[in-house]
Amino acid sequence: MSDPARPVRPATLARPLPFLRALQDNFIGVWPDDAYARDATRVRVGRRVMVTANAPALVKHVLLDNAANYHKSPIARRLFEPALGQGLLTSEGATWKRHRQMVAPVFVQRRMAALVPAMVAATQAHTAAWGRETDSSFDLTEALSVITLDIITRTMFGAESFADITTLAADTVAYQKILRPSLLDFLGAPSWVPRPGDAKARRFGDRLTERIDHIIARRRAQPDDRDDLLAHLLRAVDQDGVSPREIRDEIATTLTAGHETTAATVAWSLYLLDLYPETEGRLVDELRRVLDGRPPVAGDIEALRFTRMVIEEALRLYPPAHSMTRQALGPDRLGDVAVPKGAVVVISPWLLHRNPTLWPDPDRFDPDRFDPSRSRNRYSYIPFGTGSRVCVGASFAMTEAILVLATMLQNFRIRLVADQPIEPVALITLRPRHGLRATAERR
After folding, report:
1. Which residues are within 8 A (CB) of 207 and not within 5 positions of it... i.e. 6 or more apart?
2. pLDDT averaged over consecutive 10-residue blocks of the chain (443 residues)?
3. DSSP conformation class of 119
4. Helix 244-275, helix 229-240: angle, nearest 10
5. pLDDT of residue 189
6. CA-CA distance, 6 to 318, in Å (whole number)?
7. What pLDDT shows up at residue 161?
8. What is the CATH number of the domain that holds 327?
9. Which end of the chain has fewer CB atoms within 10 angstroms, the N or the C?
10. In whole angstroms, what is the distance from residue 370 CA to residue 373 CA?
C-alpha cells in the first residue's frame, strides 16, 4: 500500500530565484520536513517577510484573539478579486460584516434538510451513464466539479440556473491555473504593475458577471416563492439598499468557492478510498446497513457516521483551502518569532494537519481519528478556517460531501487508473495537478 501523495519537492531551493519559482509553482511543496513540526517559521521571500503559524495557540491568536491586526494579504486579494470582487472571501471591515449578515441565514444547519433531495438528484443525474462502457475512463475532478456546480445552482439560485454548467466548471479550473502568485508579488512590486494572467482573469470575471446578471434578470422577470440565497440577496437590494455590485460579488463567491472546494474534497476522498480498500469496504458496509439500497435522505446523514469520518480525514490530508494568508497591520509575536508590520502570516491547514506533534503518523489515512469519542484541540483542525471568518457554508459543504460520496459509492465501484502521476498542487484550491483518471463499475 502506497502512502498518500505529497508534492514533488524541488531539488534546489537554497538560492532565492529557484525558491521563488518553486513557491509560485506549488506553494505547499517548498516546506522542509522540519517545518511541519515547528510552531512558527520565518523566512524572507523577495522583499517580504513570511511567517507561518503552525500551532493551535498561534492559529487562535491570529484568527481570533488578535484578528484585528491581520487583514487579507495583497496576494490573496489579487488572486480572488478578478472573479469574486468584494465578496465574503475578499472584503474586510464593515463590508464583510454586512455581507456575512446577509448570507449567513441561508446556510444555517436547520435549512440543510430541505436541500438534500436536490443534492442527491443532481448526483444521480450526472452519474446515470457511468459504468456503461467498462473500458472508458474519465477525470473524477472534472466530473465532480460539474456535479457540485449543479448542486449549487439548484439549491442556491433555482433549478437550471445555467445552461452551461460544464463550461463554467471548466472556466473555474482554468482561472486557477491562469492566475497564480507571481514573482512580482513576492518581490513586492506595486499592485498596478501587470502580472501574468491578469487580462485572462478579467475576461473570466466579465463572463461570470454576464451569467450572474442573467440569473438576476430571470428571477426579477419571473418572481416566485423560493427562499434560496438569490431571494435573500435580492431582498437585501430592495429593502436594505445593498448595491447590485455587492450582490453579484456574493453570487460569484458562492458559485465558484461553493462548488470547487466540495468537488476537491470528494475527489480526494475517492482517491484515498482507492488507496485503502479495507476502509472503502467499511464505508460501503455502512451504506448497505443504513440505506438498504435506497437513495439517502436527510434523516440518514447522522447515521452515516463513518462516511463523515472518511470525509473529515480527507479534509485533514488534502484541505481544499490549503493556506490562509494575512498581512500584519502592526508588529506582533508568534511564540518566539517576531512578526514585523507588513509581514505575511501564513496559516496552512496543509502544514497544521500534518504536524506530527498534533497528529501521530500524520501521513496515514485513518478516519478513526475522527471517531466522535476522541477529542482534539479545536484549533488543530481547520479545514473551514476558524474565528469570525470561519466558512459560512461549512454545514452545507459537509452535508453535500456526505451525500455525493454516499450516492456514488452506493451505486459504483470507482477505481483510479493505475500508474498515473498524482501530485497535490496548491492552486487557489488544492487539486491533483494531473487530474484523477478513474473508471466506474456499477455495483
Report:
1. 171
2. 83 68 83 92 84 97 96 80 79 86 86 93 92 81 92 81 67 76 71 77 83 84 81 84 86 84 96 97 98 96 98 98 94 96 94 97 97 94 93 94 98 94 91 94 90
3. H
4. 160
5. 73
6. 9
7. 47
8. 1.10.630.10
9. N
10. 8
Residue 360 DSSP SS3: coil
Comparing CA positions, the residue from 149, 56, 9 lying closest to residue 382 is 56
Torsional sign, CA 324, 426, 401, 353? negative
What domain range is 94 assigned to? Answer: 16-442
233 belongs to a structural domain: yes
Residue 303: closest CA among 285, 323, 277: 285
Q: Which of 60, 61, 43, 64 is nearest to 52 (CA)?
A: 43
Name the one residue in this structure whose C-alpha cell is 476537491: 264
What secondary structure does DSSP assign to 72-94, as a single string?
E-HHHHHHHHHHHTTSTTT--HH
Cell numbers at residue 243, please? 448595491
353-388 burial, b at 16+ Cβ within 10 Å, e below that, comes to bbbeebbeebeebbbebbeeeeeeeebbbbbbbbee
Among 113, 111, 80, which Cα is nearest to 229's?
Answer: 111
State residue 13's pLDDT score.
Answer: 61
142 class by beta-carbon count within 10 Å (0-12 exposed, 13-18 middle, 19+ buried): middle
Task: Answer yes or no: is 8 within a domain.
Answer: no
User: Which positions ≥6 away from 291 have C-beta within 8 Å?
Assistant: 300, 406, 410
The number of distinct structural domains making up the chain is 1
Of all helices (H) and strands (E), which one includes residue 53?
strand 48-53
CA distance 167 to 89: 23
Q: How many residues does the chain have?
A: 443
pLDDT of residue 11: 66
* H-helix or E-strand spanning residue 398: helix 394-411
393 near 103, Cβ under 8 Å? no
Nearest to 89 by CA among 264, 206, 257: 257
Stated as kind and residue range, the H or E segment containing 70 is strand 70-72
Closest to 408 measured CA to CA, from 1, 119, 111, 5? 119
pLDDT of residue 64: 95
In the three-class reduction of DSSP (H, G, I as helix; E, B as strand; rest coil), residue 316 is classed as helix
Q: Which residues contact 214 (CB under 8 A, 6 or more apart)?
A: none
Answer whether residue 9 is part of any domain: no
